[in-house]
Amino acid sequence: MTTFASGTDTLTRDALTVLQPGFTGTTAPDWLLRRLGEGLASVGLFGRNIATPEQLAALTAQLRAERDDVLVAIDEEGGDVTRLEVRTGSSFPGNHALGAVDDVELTRQVASELGRRLAACGVNLNWAPSADVNSNPSNPVIGVRSFGADTALVARHTAAYVAGLQSAGVAACTKHFPGHGDTAVDSHHALPRIDAALDVLSDRELSPFRAAIAAGTRAMMSAHILIPALDPDHPATLSRPVLTDLLRGDLGYTGLIVTDGMEMQAIAATYGIERGSVLAIAAGADAICVGGGLADDETVRRLRDALVTAVRSGELPEERLAEAAERVRELARWTATAAAAPAAGGGVRTDVGLTAARRALKLTAAADFTPLAEAPYVVAFTPVANIAVGDETPWGVAAELARLLPGTETGSFAGKDAGREALGAAGDRRIVAVVRDEHRHPWMQTALDVLLTARPDTIVVEMGVPQAAPRGTLHIATHGAARVCGRAAAEVIAGK
What we know:
The chain is an alpha/beta fold. The chain is built from 17 helices and 14 strands. It folds into two domains: 10-340, TIM Barrel (Alpha-Beta Barrel); 361-494, 3-Layer(aba) Sandwich (Rossmann fold), CATH 3.40.50.
């Protein structure tokens, strides 16, 4: 591929403007600062970039010293998907817990407080909320990231979340359009397909996105999914019928369209990130998210050059690239204005996350259950984490139980012998078994059978989507695995 000089010509600047790359490290590398000077307008942050709120604030200030209107984006859903608190677990429950409570004002308050914390660190674009209707309970990648399986519930909480987040001056990026809930494949690994009819898509998948648009969402993220009823040939991210005809035309959306990570295998393994990025902009996307796994200057250069080459060859209309770049700059202008305005809708509620997590608990208790007075053994039946969540973030109830019941011990178990191994490790101590999406993992169901047969007084904590029937002397459904969800469950177990 031809490499173009990184000058200040309009075409080159526009090609850089539409990119949202990540990087490694907790300070901005020289190449990133240089690209900001050449036209790059957005940066994506991940857990690898964050150590403390103070460090994050210093990092965003470093970026703004180079370009004062830079969009600083993050994947901070709260709940299981957290970057601000990647090493400790989130102070906020995720969408599924908020949907379980079904108090739209609480959802707005949670999003507002989360937005306030992001804004205080200099972040002004959040790749959230997920507006996916989790209609397939076996969905491997959405699950507790969704408000639920009921379309109307998801729609009203999506709107409340958008309003709350943007009241803090942080742009919401509602995802994953046109809906990732009815999938059995994780698009990080392969291309999912949804074979639903148009009327089903309209009534189920699209309703929460209509609500988000009505609430004024400033950005929308596309999904790497194939929906033949909308476009039999291209995944949504690369589809003009989906992004331009449906989202822009039928739904009347005028804000920024951001792609999901282009390094995800649903795109990268089929089209490659350079070709995929050209097709995405041509289809109607305005910003190319890349950097979850690819985070270097070489990637930025390759994508910039691919876009410039596509324009010069006539494959990508120059006015389409210019329009996309202008939408990025328009969102940057909004964030500057929003940051200067006071947040609306009440005062600061720093405890709202824990309050929400407590309210989200669903308890099913045997008549003779009494809270524990002595330290138990916590058995964590641990599935493989999906890439969106990652395996850095701790989860469970052991740490919080140890705080309330000193001497609490724990072990992690998986596989066909997990139940027997857990019994051996626990000895004669009372067992608290922690599961995550029991209904999706046959080995986990078997392990729990073994535990409960031998020790019917076992307490079960389900921290995923609670589809399996409640069992144990006490069953607690937390509707998510955030740190505050674990704390709320531990309080019940210990009677605190």
